[in-house]
């Protein structure tokens, strides 16, 4: 079958080539891929940023999000049947959604929301699960609390704003001048135009900050949190808790622990907590998200779509950092 793959870490563009058909196990669902979405994570994996934590074999088919139709199911699968329209963020050990077909563990899957087409559905899993695991699982965000969501026009930001408003929070976000009114329409109560304002000068007394940007933004975010607040980062640095959850060897755990030592110390001095989130595939949470989508509480935000033959261009577009919402690769 055809797939978009890399032969080595750091390969600039990747290529479309022939790979072996998936070999589904008893808990797997074989899916005909109709659409996939491009995430910043795909570029980080291609560059080798996670090779110590996730040592993939080469050649590697990229892609973490999928929407498609069930072709067949393993002997242990009970929740899905051939013909079902499904979507998922596939488990990180078995990525490869930029392909004609993929086998996915049933526990990562959910039925596609009935009110979304395949491209819209492909835009949902990774970013929305990230927002859910940050705001619901870690922050336990409650009505009346204040949250700052960085990069409000990005893939995670667009759904995190919607989810935080659904939870009843007061939402601030950062974006560029061109996107100020656009993110207000998503539900943001306060928008900081980073081209003309410094968020750390404008905001105070926040309960939660969700960071997806660099180290300077991360450290300055401590200034807007009130005592007892939570700084949650999806862009690093990782923590010892993350390393333990990944099952890393003790020496590597110590290396990872040191990476976040500086920000954890600064967080303690501000009397706030620091957490690193590397989101996990979770079909049960995805079903909860589907219910919100079908109820009109959450909606995907799409920037543009590319044909499968232009997957390299889709990755390059995301790497420019200017996409408003999600970028889609169309397989069908």
From TrEMBL:
Domain Enoyl reductase (ER), residue spans: 14-329
ATP-binding recorded as keyword: no
InterPro entries: ADH-like_N (IPR013154), ER (IPR020843), GroES-like_sf (IPR011032), NAD(P)-bd_dom_sf (IPR036291), Quin_OxRdtase/zeta-crystal_CS (IPR002364), YIM1/Zinc_Alcohol_DH_Fams (IPR050700)
Entry keyword set: Oxidoreductase
PROSITE patterns tied to this protein: QOR_ZETA_CRYSTAL
Enzyme Commission code: 1.-.-.-
Superkingdom to which the source organism belongs: Bacteria
UniProt xrefs under Pfam families: ADH_N, ADH_zinc_N_2
A GO MF term: oxidoreductase activity
Listed name of the protein: NADP-dependent oxidoreductase
Organism per entry: Pseudomonas retamae
